Amino acid sequence: MTITNNEILYLYDAKLTNPNGDPDEENRPRMDYEREMNLVSDLRLKRYIRDFIHAKGHDIFVRRVDDKPVTADKRIKDLKDSSNEWILDNLTDVRMFGATMTVKRDNKTFIGPIQFNWGYSLNKVELLESSITSHFSASERATQGTIGKDYRVKYSLIAFSGVVSGNRAEKTMLKDEDLYLLDEAMKYAIPNLATRSKIGQYPRLYIRTEYMDKETILGDYRDYIELRENVPNIRDINECSLIIDRLVKLLNENKEKIKNLYYFADEKLELILDGQQVKFEEAFKDLPLKQVK
Description:
By secondary structure, this protein is α+β, with helices and mostly antiparallel strands. It contains 8 helices and 18 strands.
């Protein structure tokens, strides 16, 4: 089937964890300090997705080899075939996100149809700083373990916006199955791939609106939602609500342009419509809903 334009809204939260460390800031969580806003790069989100689809058995271009990081040149040399057809047929992440490769002095550039903006927190975020001690010493002569710093957010509800370009999808041979795999990754990748610094993150809401054509773009869905904090300085998902009136209105006013709306909504995230708590299915009942299992 022909891939049309899609738009994505994705919310997940982070509690006492580091969603995206900044190497220029001693690996502190990325922040807009003027706004007290936690930031997460699109590359961090794509890394979760790549790792998930690779674990599902799909080959990808951007990955480790034998559990070791390698250069792009090394990955290219390891490919069985460097033709465009083979690359797009076999490397799922290139079909999704694109890639730039230098093959025999020839630059191959695939512009990915699936792109995300940087994510940002809907709430003001405080950082937690603590000292950590390793059991291992810095040298054989040292008698004590090394001491370092550990930086985490106290609580951050992070929102991403994304698009799928129907025109670019045609050029990278993106498949419907790739989008279903993306849906699955958005629901399961973050909790399933948790590390020590990433445990404590859970997906709360995902919407992928599939439009009827390759022209429709309604805009960043984050502009149409509002976080209501039910207590000062929220520390948990049950201490806030998401007001979705404007998003529901936007999609309902454009429902003739919508083919399907793929979604999952965590029951712990309280959704508010017309001042009342509602289930996702009730709020968007006038749209063609398809739940991500």
